[in-house]
């Protein structure tokens, strides 16, 4: 595959498609390329970039800080100290200070460990993942990963073990068209992590992320259920089937659900028929809604485009919102407004206040996008890509943000 290439997409797409045409992918795999979508400047065309990428600067946030308060991250409470949200002290990662500003309001969080891209040398560290797990476990009981390179499955499971927090993980295998080795490599490290850590903290295994979106666009199609779409689906289904065989070989065929994630309008029916669950990216930002209208838009889109169609399939895959959120900034001024509202902390707050507790009450399973700002995306893709975090890249709760106090089921 070529390293980087562009393809223009017609602007005549339905609003929903664009909308969900989601956000770039979070994670990305390996030495191969991954298709990523980048919003072009306002009023101009949208371009699709296929690239490999990534870079992550290792913000070696030195730990420092204060005393531990002894409890292990179960309920909220406690001290919430100074500017650093959480930190380990002593050598026991299960003893860490709880931040009183954090509440387990989220059904789930989308997470990519810093430095989990092999192209940049795999700089992920257990120390950083432990910090992340300490923070995330104060916000939710579920996280999802996108891929398995750079040892991220084991790092996360090891961090959960050491911190003793109540956290379930949806592991991920980031499938890349034309690079079957990427799938196989990830499958093998996932298998090894399962053998090492067991299944207690594994809620599912997601095979493929935005694979259909990238596949149909690369093949100049818009329809995931076209003949072209079915060709892409066959690649995914082969990997999904292989993953089930791997789990069956561990006698876990019925224990760990196997799913797939994609942009909300890009699910192929045959893929949905092959999985236990589907995870859908649903982003009001890319549908150009206002921040005030975002929660309603997301809820309706997910219900109509994903939940209802999935319920008609004989296997009735459970549908999740894989990503939803609101950006707080943009690398360039041109992308700092989507035509409806600004990318800002104030508008992320609006979305938090109108979506999170309401979705919890409605029983909508969602992964908030995302845990923290991913600096490499800002460098590589610009726009709002690097600004979706609840925490900033230094793992500090964004200034001015208030986490809802409801507790997710
Ligand atoms: C959203 O607004 C941008 C900038 O004006 C525009 O390029 C894009 O086509 C719009 N998207 C939709 C789905 O309306
Ligand atoms: C936060 O971390 C920084 C850098 O490690 C440190 O200098 C500072 O004292 C810490 N602040 C608190 C309140 O712990
Ligand atoms: C992967 O992470 C686990 C947990 O920290 C560690 O035991 C193992 O050695 C790591 N493997 C590699 C190849 O880094």
| Portion in helices | 25-40%
Series of secondary-structure elements, N-terminal to C-terminal: EHEEEHEHEHEHHEHEHEHEH
- What class do helices, strands and sheet pairing give? alpha/beta
Number of helices: 10
CATH class descriptor name: Alpha Beta
CATH architecture: Alpha-Beta Barrel
Largest sheet: 8 strands, parallel, barrel
Largest sheet: spatial strand order: 4-5-6-7-8-9-10-11
Bound molecules: 2-acetamido-2-deoxy-beta-D-glucopyranose
CA-atom Rg in angstroms: 20 Å
- Number of beta strands: 11
* N-to-C CA distance: 44 Å
Q: Give the low-pLDDT segments.
A: 1-85
User: What is the fold-level CATH name, i.e. the topology?
Assistant: TIM Barrel
Task: Report what the structure shows.
α5 (211-218) packs antiparallel against α6 and α8 (291-311) packs parallel to α9. This protein is an alpha/beta fold. The protein starts with a strand and ends in a 28-residue tail after the last helix. α2 links the parallel β4 (108-110) and β5. The chain contains ten helices and eleven strands. One 2-acetamido-2-deoxy-beta-D-glucopyranose binds next to α3. It catalyses: Hydrolysis of (1->3)-beta-D-glucosidic linkages in (1->3)-beta-D-glucans. This is glucan endo-1,3-beta-D-glucosidase. Its EC number is 3.2.1.39.
Give a quick set of tags describing it.
409 residues; disordered N terminus; 8-stranded parallel beta barrel; alpha/beta; single chain; 3-stranded antiparallel beta sheet; TIM Barrel
